[in-house]
Structures are given as C-alpha cells and as structure tokens.
Fold this protein.
Amino acid sequence: MTQITTRPARPHDVQRLHEMIHALAYFHGDLPRLTLQTLEKTLFGTAPDLNAIVAQHNDRLVGYAVMFPVFKLQFGTHGKELHHMFVEADIRGQGVGRLLIEASVKYANSCGCSHLSVGTHPDNITAQDMYVASGFEAVSIAGPRFRMLLE
C-alpha cells in the first residue's frame, strides 16, 4: 500500500471535500446541491454539525469520512454516525477505507462516545464486508421511519 495518512479536515480542505462529496452523490444517482458555503459552515462554523476526517496521499486528498452526533437519550449515551465515507476510485482496494474507519473509531473514542454506527446500501456487499471486518456488527432497524420537509 502506498503511504496514506488520515487527519481531521481543515478549512483549506473544503474545496476538495466538496468535489468528493459531489462525486459520491453522482455515484449514487443523486443530484448534489451542497454549496461550498454550506459545507464550510457545517464543518467549521461557530457550532459545527459534522466532523470530517480526510485521507491524504502526498498532497492529494483521496477520501473522507464524515460523522454526526447521535444520542440514545433513554440510556444517557451518545455516539457518532458515520454518515459518509468515500475513497477515490483510483486508490480503492489499498486500505484507505479501513484507515478512515480506524480514524473515525479513534475520534469517536476521544469524544467519549459509546458507539459508532454506519449504514450502507443493501446491495453494497463490499462495504458491508469491510464494516464487518473492521469490527462493526450488523443490526436491524425496526419500525417505519417518517420525515417532514421543512422550509
């Protein structure tokens, strides 16, 4: 494997993160609407909603993982949801995903989290296998979910 490092995202990474987020959206058939301004505010504003870790090869960012806080209020515990994880196609299969997972686990532990969770498309067997190999266990989500679009 080539030398890959992981680190927390920094404000100067926003442009490259934006590009990779759009690439992941297109991969899933979504039309991305995320702006640079929204991404910067969400990651680095006065009250950031998300945490991002990037994977870097030399001076090039080649992947990222983004987490947001989740709570199990009835148990008094908090955790992180690994909301997005992406690795550039030309470097997949070289362990970058595992490095991003390891960095995410380390970050969640440093925040005092009791758990880290992640979801994936039911057909993405490669990702499912990687998560299990990395120590995640499969769980079923019970019950229907609902949403309301807000203005």
Notes: The mean pLDDT is 92.
